[in-house]
Amino acid sequence: MILENIEQVKKNITTACQKVGRDPAQVTLIAVSKTKPYTAIAEALPSGILDYGENKVQELVEKYERLPSDIRWHMIGHLQRNKVKYLVGKTSLIHSVDSYRLAEQIEKEFAKENKIAEILIEINMAEEESKFGIPANEAEWLIEKISLLEHIRIKGLMTIAPYTEDPEENRKYFRKMKKLSVDIAAKNIYNVSMDVLSMGMTGDYQVAIEEGATMVRVGTGIFGERNYNT
Ligand SMILES: *Cc1c(COP(=O)(O)O)cnc(C)c1O
After folding, report:
1. How far is the CA of 188 from the centre of ligand 1 (A)?
2. How far is the centre of ligand 1, averaged over its atoms, from the C-alpha of 34 (Å)?
3. Structure confidence by residue, pLDDT tens digits, 173-204
């Protein structure tokens, strides 16, 4: 089932790319394995997917320890400062940096091990109260400040669009994300690249790709519904 789902998602990615003349190789599929056992990832590996997303540090570390070392682990959930130390050397990209205090903690822990943390800045584009992330108009200020930290490289932006039945409703947010990313890239801030645009989940990744996503985070569409009660 998991491998069939992945094939379907890959096809949908290709179709979305073709619609707007993009190369599917520019879009990285992150399989969001949160709440699922490590065996689900083992089942997915023959597909060739090596990018997996987790939203809890402990779960990421447990799976990291059980699975092949060439897997790239993406920390996509809200990150508490006291958990940062467990991620050093285990995560390839932290998608959810939304404060200078968190960035400072990342700097401190990665510096101890002489490692560089690659991060994205999380934007709350729809300004939903329930969501983490910073408002778009604070992005440039925060990025300039974080760019001075020696053990951090900003690679781009991430957003979690609102939950909706109709993915078209999120197109405007994805479009604004792309524009923000282009605007920040144009500032040529030292040590900052805007290559990554992480947006789009099971319900809306095709629309996100049409608007320029370079990473999509798909959980349910690959691993099935999550059960939070077990
Ligand atoms: C859970 C989660 C996803 C995947 O959501 P699905 O709707 O299951 O595809 C993507 N991004 C983040 C940040 C998540 O927490």
Report:
1. 31
2. 8
3. 999 999 999 999 999 999 999 999 999 999 99
